[in-house]
Each structure stands twice: as structure tokens, then as C-alpha cells.
Amino acid sequence: MQQRITPLFLALGLATLLTAPAHAQMWNFPDYMVPGMRGSPTSWVSADFGRGLNEASGEENAFGAAYGRTGEAISFMIGAGIITGDFDDEFTFGAAVGGDFMEGDGVTLGVQGGFGWVSPGPLTLIRIPVGLTVRSETEMEDGGIVIPWVMPRLNFSRWSGGGDSDSELDLGISGGVTMTLSSGVGFHAALDYLLVEGDDPLQFGLGIHYLLGSSGGN
After folding, report:
1. Across 88-114, average pLDDT
2. 125-171 pLDDT, tens digit each
3. Is-contact 48 206, C-beta < 8 A?
4. How far apart are CA 47 and CA 35, in angstroms?
5. DSSP characters for the chain?
6. Which residues pair with 207 in a beta bridge?
7. What's the rounded Cα separation, in Å, for the pair 175 and 16?
8. Which one, of 160, 190, 186, 192, lies nearest residue 173 by Cα?
9. Is the pLDDT confidence value at 13 over 70?
10. What is the pTM for the complete model shown?
11. How far apart, in whole angstroms, are the C-alpha atoms of residue 175 and residue 148?
């Protein structure tokens, strides 16, 4: 027997819907740029923390892990995480794929898209962000690399449950910096701002990553 969604779960679901930024497009993390290829194709893993910085973001913590692979034409990443808050912890997963299409004058342009999923209670929430990435690269003395980047995007999100559903299309922007040492160990951080009618979630994230089988930056 199908049950209609209760006002409580509806309110919780919509609050979660507004916390759209996500690492590997996971919920409650900033939307990070999919790393581009540098040198040989490289695999990497990361551990990540995300935090909403204002009431519109839900002010919840999230912990996750991701795996990615850079390629000569296309790069991708996938991730899974746990969102913690005042209610039950929620599992989330996401994926993103991207590629570069223009490089010059120290700036590289790319495009990327992704998919994110979370299911609080009887709700199912998905998001599909599509963005333009702009990045530059600075090589360090030890052979590592620092990459500042910014990504404006369109963010499509949808919730459904108990016979009800709704969708929304918003503008957003994220930006951050990735630093990878010559050892393959690196750090990354980002801020994410989403323009939602009546609420503007602001999300922060940071993490550590490692290039598998690599001795240089990504």
C-alpha cells in the first residue's frame, strides 16, 4: 500500500534538497572539479569532509571517500559518504565525468557533469550538476603541483516519495585549490554557493588524496 509523504519527511527532504553541493556529486559536499590529466593517466583515492556553513545548507557534517581516474580525453570520479545530523545518518553516493576542451595562456577550460543520490526516510533525492571548469597549474620546486580552479554550473535536483515529487533548476558556483606533492600525497579544499530561491546554501569541504602508483602531481 502506497503511503503519501508526511509533512515532517517533506520538510526534511526539502532541507536536504537545498544542501546540493557535493564531492563526486555526493550530497553535502562541495562540487569539486574532476581532476584533469597531467602526464600519464593516473588513479587516485581521497578521504573527504564536508560541512554546511549556513542555515540553508543544513549545517550538517559529511564524511566520505572517492576514487578517480584521469585519462587523455575523459576523467571520472565516484564516491560514497555518510551525512550526519540531528536525525538518522544518511548514506549518499555520486559520480562525475569531465574533459578538457581548450588550453592556452596558463588556463585550461573543461566541462563536466555528474549524478548524486541520497534517500532520507521515504524520500529519494537526485541531483544532476553540469558545469564549466576553469583551472590553472603551477609547478612547485619539488615537482608537485598547485591547481586553483572555479566551476560555474547548472544544478538540476529532484525529490520523490509517497506519490509526490518535485524538481528544481538552479545556478551555482564552486571553487577551490588542489595541491599535490611529488610523493603523490595531496590536499584539496573548496567552497560551494548555490543560488536557490529564498535560500542560498554555502558549503565547505576539505580532504586528502593520494595518487596511486604515481610520483608526481595531477
Report:
1. 91
2. 999 999 999 999 998 888 889 999 999 999 998 989 888 888 889 99
3. yes
4. 15
5. ---PPPHHHHHHHHHHHT----GGG-TTS--PPPPPP-SS--EEEEEEEEEE-SGGGT--EEEEEEEEE--SS-EEEEEEEEEESSS--EEEEEEEEEEEEEEETTEEEEEEEEEEEE--TT-EEEEEEEEEEEE--EE-TTS-EEEEEEEEEEEEEEEEETTEEEEEEEEEEEEEEEEE-TTSEEEEEEEEEEEBTTB--EEEEEEEEEEET-SS--
6. 48, 188
7. 22
8. 192
9. no
10. 0.83
11. 8
Q: How many residues in total does the chain contain?
A: 218
Q: Are 131 and 152 in contact (CB under 8 A)?
A: yes
Q: How far apart are CA 37 and CA 110, in angstroms?
A: 11
Range with lowest mean pLDDT among 20-24, 92-96, 118-122, 196-200? 20-24
Cell of 159: 525529490
User: Pick from 34, 65, 70: which is nearest to 212 by CA?
Assistant: 70
Locus of grid cell 543560488? 195
